[in-house]
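Researcher: Can you fold this with guanosine-5'-triphosphate in place?
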Amino acid sequence: MPAHLWDSAAARDPTHCRQIIVIGDSNVGKTCLTIRFCGGTFPRQTEATIGVDFREKTVEIEGERIKVQVWDTAGQERFRKSMVEHYYRNVHGVVFVYDVTKMSSFVNLKTWIEECNEHAVSLTVPRVLVGNKCDLEDLIQVPSSMALKFADAHNMLLFETSAKDPKESQNVDAIFMCLACRLKLWVILCAARQRSGSARLLSGSARLRACAVCGAAAMK
Ligand SMILES: Nc1nc2c(ncn2[C@@H]2O[C@H](COP(=O)(O)OP(=O)(O)OP(=O)(O)O)[C@@H](O)[C@H]2O)c(=O)[nH]1
C-alpha cells in the first residue's frame, strides 16, 4: 500500500486530490451542479457533455484543506463509450443524479448503479443520491418518499436540490462536502488501523474490502 497515504501531513495536503464522479441520465443537470459547486454560478446555457469535464475546488473540513476534483460525465451513451472504464477505476466518491421532474431519470438510476458496480467500484466508495431541479415545484414527478426509500435501499444519503436556485447553493455544496468529509474520515480510519499494526484487521476475512482512498484492505 502507498505509505504516504497514511501520513497525516499528506492527507492534509491540498494538492492531494480526491476524485468524485457525477453520473446520471443526460439533461438531469450534472454540469450545472458541478459548476454551481466549483464556480458558484448557474450557466445560462450548457452543451451536452462529451466524455468527461473536470472541475476542481479546495474545501476546508474541520480546518483541513481537501482538494476535490469533480468529474462531470456525459449522460448520453454515444459520448461515454471510451471513457467509462478509466474514470471508474480511479474514483473516490460517486454522485448519482436524477431529475425530480422526470421519472425516467429516476428509474434509470438502477442502470447507473449497475454500471458502477460492473466497473468494480468498491461498495466502500461513498455514494450519494441527488434529485435535482427542485425549483420546478409544479412539475415534480418523483416524490421525496420514493427517492428516500431508494436511497435507503442502496445505502446512500439523499439530497434534493436545485443548481438553478441560488438559495439552494448551500445544499449543492453539502453534496460534495458530505463526500469530502466521508473521504477524510475514511483516511483517518485507515491511518488508525495502520498505526495499530493490526495485520489481522487488514487481511484474512471475506468481509474485507478495498479502501476507496488508498486501495488498502479495510473492514466493511
Ligand atoms: N430548472 C432547472 N433547470 C436546470 C437545473 N439544473 C440544470 N438545469 C437545466 O437542465 C438542462 C441540462 O443541464 P446540464 O447540466 O447540461 O445536464 P447534464 O446532466 O450535464 O447533461 P449531459 O451533459 O447531456 O449529460 C439545462 O437546460 C439546464 O439549464 C435546475 O436545478 N433547475
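Model: Folded with guanosine-5'-triphosphate in place. The first strand starts at residue 17 and ends at 24.
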